Write the structure tokens for this entry.
Amino acid sequence: DDYSDGLCLGFVIGVLDISFDTRLYCLEKATNKQIVMVIVKWMRANPEELHFPAKWIVAKALFNVFPCRDE
């Protein structure tokens, strides 16, 4: 529902805000909606990870899907 979607988006944006300078992941061209969709997909593919804190899950999903590359 819309409430749950907004709550999820708000949480993810909060995690992004507090980890912006860590360079754990690079999201230059991803929209907020794409980021949330990627995290949800990663969570469905990795149910064994869901016992960890939510902020860790968000960071790990983004690190695995949007790693920073040395250029």
Remarks:
- The helical segments are 2-18, 32-45, 54-65.
